[in-house]
Write a structure and sequence with these properties.
Layout lengths: L1 H22 L4 H15 L2 H12 L8 H9 L1 H4 L6
């Protein structure tokens, strides 16, 4: 069951990544910023924490590189203060 939840988070994150990558095809920095901002604004803290935990544990092999970059670059803003 947990694997299904992780796969669903990756799928949703990749959909966000696809959208913002298309919005800024020549500016990956803008895309990663927009992805992180979207995750921060619209995902529950528990969802962000789970995605980052799965990412850190190597359980997100299907995560798009642009989304992985957003997680690496904006980790501090994505994690709630208590989880950081």
């Amino acid at each position: 069951m947990e694997h299904d939840h992780s796969a669903q988070l990756v799928k949703m994150a990749n959909q966000i990544g696809t959208f913002f990558q298309a919005q800024s095809p020549s500016d990956s920095g803008a895309a990663t910023q927009a992805i992180a901002a979207h995750l921060k604004s619209f995902w529950a803290p528990s969802m962000r924490i789970q995605l980052i935990r799965d990412f850190d544990a190597g359980k997100t092999p299907l995560l798009m590189p642009i989304v992985a970059s957003a997680i690496r670059s904006h980790r501090a803003t994505l994690l709630p203060a208590a989880a950081a």
